[in-house]
TrEMBL record, chains A, B:
Domain Fumarylacetoacetase N-terminal stretches: 1-46
One Pfam family matching this protein: FAA_hydrolase
Superkingdom field: Bacteria
Lineage: Bacteria, Pseudomonadati, Pseudomonadota, Alphaproteobacteria, Rhodobacterales
Keyword Acyltransferase: no
Residues covered by the Fumarylacetoacetase-like C-terminal domain: 67-315
UniProt cross-references to SUPFAM superfamilies, sorted A to Z: FAH
Keywords: Hydrolase
GO molecular function annotation: hydrolase activity
InterPro entries with a match to the protein in the record: FAA_hydro_N, Fumarylacetoacetase-like_C, Fumarylacetoacetase_C_sf
Official protein name in the record: Fumarylacetoacetate hydrolase family protein
Amino acid sequence: MKIASLDDGSPDGALVVVSDDLRMQRPCTDRTLRDALDMKRLVPELTEQPFDEGSCGAVLPRATQFLDGSAYVNHVDLVRRARGADMPPSFWTDPLMYQGCSTFIGPQDDITGDPDWGIDFEAEIAVITGDVPQGASADEAAGFIEYVLLINDISLRALIPDELSKGFGFVQSKPPSATSPLAVTPAALPGWDGRKLHGILHVDLNGQPFGRANAGVDMTFDFGTLIAHAAKTRPLPAGTIIGSGTISNRDADEGPGQPVARGGRGYSCIAEQRMVETILTGQAHTPFLRPGDTVKIWMQDDAGRSIFGTINQKVAPWP
Amino acid sequence: MKIASLDDGSPDGALVVVSDDLRMQRPCTDRTLRDALDMKRLVPELTEQPFDEGSCGAVLPRATQFLDGSAYVNHVDLVRRARGADMPPSFWTDPLMYQGCSTFIGPQDDITGDPDWGIDFEAEIAVITGDVPQGASADEAAGFIEYVLLINDISLRALIPDELSKGFGFVQSKPPSATSPLAVTPAALPGWDGRKLHGILHVDLNGQPFGRANAGVDMTFDFGTLIAHAAKTRPLPAGTIIGSGTISNRDADEGPGQPVARGGRGYSCIAEQRMVETILTGQAHTPFLRPGDTVKIWMQDDAGRSIFGTINQKVAPWP
């Protein structure tokens, strides 16, 4: 089953069930996804209307909690190298995770920020959990995944070094992320193996292919492991969102990966492409986002049909 | 006006307006504080019932966001010294803040954790904001404070060093905080100066006075400044909670402060008392919390009446 929250001006939006072909929608007895998660039910009504993914807000505009992992350790390695920081070997065995902003913006909402902040996107897979008890194992935790979705974890690269040097993680450097128009139950998701999503995450920057990484490859920590990490010292109430971190694939030769234009799988954030440029040419030349730039993020099934709809954002004029 | 959310088994509780003397309560037209914040109104009904603060859950069990500052830089200095970390001078001018867990537990809920995790309390003042626009100044931000409350920011000291060394801030080491039974509007709050709360924050550990610090003293960053820091790169939707960090007073001689038993103002967390013990005797001797230990946190007005009710928590048996 696919669901979306229409942006009707209310804080949580209006929950609808969407047909697999994204053509029709049905409202639900519980008006919002939050209510449906609380009631532990999802009851679509019979009336059908045409679905327009342009009318969607964030699937869950106010998540109960948001914890974002860095499951693709290749990305962590590259981004840390890009800012001159070493990566401890424990990063390959102990999940890296931060507490993110628990509110989300819609898939077509503008990205708003000062271009001097170094605005970047990060294309990720995320899951919405049911009630996860404290201390759940990774195997148990995987059973609490209710929905899978895409997110764009907007990151302000120029603010990160100073903020992380203070030792308390991201605050200003990680404003609210955007979600895909749709979230999909694991049972209805092609490529879902119970812990990971296999398939190409498409990222276009200003209409050009930028990333075509496979989300099922190089994911060092699967979602069961990420959820269990988050739940070690707390329960996770229904409506918690757990992110994968930026999707990132190594090259076949174990190198950092080639741009799409050179036949590679490209990148799911600009920072990674800049790092590879530095390795290849001694200098980064792809700029971070500027007003007017656009980023699109989506996945499609084997028949080319959109699975989650498209995150399609523009950077707003500043100020 | 004082409000509370009764723990009726629902995720957000049942909003009531409580009389200033904490004797009577009235339900509200909007069933939950979240609904009332969304509707930008608070309409108590006429029917009155006796109020029992023991029936309260967290004031806002699911905050929209939670950002916790470290406004009492004396505390940061001592805790960092306690774990052998230096404090950069910029900490006196640039607010330290982390994204905390956006769900809260009730004022009488047990603290649940492995005693080997080094369980500690942190007594803090916090505010619930209305809708704060991105980029609000500190002066503007102070105008968006809707309610003031107390929180116990439970901290797992033994997990903090490894977690912070990973660079992404607190996750496992900061499980959900507890709130006071009541939240109070600024207009009804004795000692509120528009940006800070002046008054003694009482902390008892196992029935003995542990902390009597003045929340209006040594607060390097006031709430206007903390909210503006959080809102630099994002709007803060109504229902955002901003914490002060652990209340901490220096001694009159600018030293780290004496225990209450020696006539000092004591501490609002165990870590600070342990640090001072180390300074005075070369060794910390106050243990972190063990199953069965109790912590009480409250404030009272000049007439000795409780302002926010009492956070009164016990550490649960483990496992």
